[in-house]
């Protein structure tokens, strides 16, 4: 008996339609052409894989960013503190591209998220950014200079 005898044919799942997703990762990077971009990874509800979406700093940046911020739940418009993005829910219309890869066709406005079933699966924990106020170290009151 071989290690590989348990092989059975399995076709890839065809994903098409509206999904409640969760943001699992955000990467601030540069495209192959040297253009700044943000890579957002989302996991559709009930599935084990992630789909990447690219927000490129080009002529469509503001329009694409606006659509994204209108869709994501729990994130203020224009908030680019990426650590806060992970764990947020977002609605997406998913479909296949010409090569058969699952892609985000467009984001659903957050008001339409209510029509989708609750998210199923493991979600990353939401992070909060804590800002520390500068404390007075008392050195200014000393009679000599440091």
| Total number of beta strands | 5
Would you tell me the structural class of the helices and strands?
A: mainly beta
Q: CATH topology of the domain at 17-115, what is it called?
A: OB fold (Dihydrolipoamide Acetyltransferase, E2P)
Query: What's the helix-strand series?
Result: EEEHEE
* Share of β-strand residues: 25-35%
Under the CATH scheme, the architecture of the domain at 17-115 is: Beta Barrel
Shape: elongated
Estimate the helix proportion, in percent: under 10%
Counting DSSP H or I runs of 4 or more residues, the number of helices is: 1
**End-to-end distance:** 77 Å
In round numbers, the mean pLDDT is 89
Strand order in space, largest sheet? 3-2-1-4-5
What is the CATH top level name of the domain at 17-115? Mainly Beta
- pLDDT below 50 for ≥5 consecutive residues: which ranges? none
Rg (CA only) = 21 Å
What would your notes on this structure say?
With 146 residues, the chain is mostly beta strands. It has a domain at 17-115: OB fold (Dihydrolipoamide Acetyltransferase, E2P), CATH 2.40.50. The chain is built from one helix and five strands; from the N terminus they run E-E-E-H-E-E. The protein has one helix spanning 61-71, and strands spanning 17-30, 36-44, 51-56, 89-96, 102-108. The chain has a five-stranded antiparallel sheet, with helices on one face. Strand 2 and strand 3 form a beta hairpin. It is elongated and about 85 Å long. 16% of the residues are buried. The mean pLDDT is 89.
């Amino acid at each position: 008996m071989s290690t590989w005898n348990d092989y059975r044919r399995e076709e890839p799942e065809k994903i098409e339609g509206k999904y409640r997703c969760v943001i699992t990762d955000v990467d601030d990077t540069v495209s192959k052409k040297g253009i700044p971009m943000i890579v957002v990874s989302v996991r559709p509800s009930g599935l084990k894989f992630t789909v990447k979406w690219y927000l490129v700093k080009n002529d469509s940046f503001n329009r694409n960013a606006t659509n994204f911020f209108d869709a994501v739940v729990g994130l203020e418009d224009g908030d680019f503190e990426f650590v806060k993005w992970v764990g947020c829910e977002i609605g997406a219309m998913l479909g296949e591209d010409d090569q058969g890869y699952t892609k985000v066709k467009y984001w659903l406005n957050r008001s339409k998220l209510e029509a989708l079933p609750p998210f199923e699966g493991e979600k990353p924990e939401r992070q909060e950014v804590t800002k520390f106020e500068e404390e007075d170290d008392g050195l200014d009151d000393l009679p000599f200079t440091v």
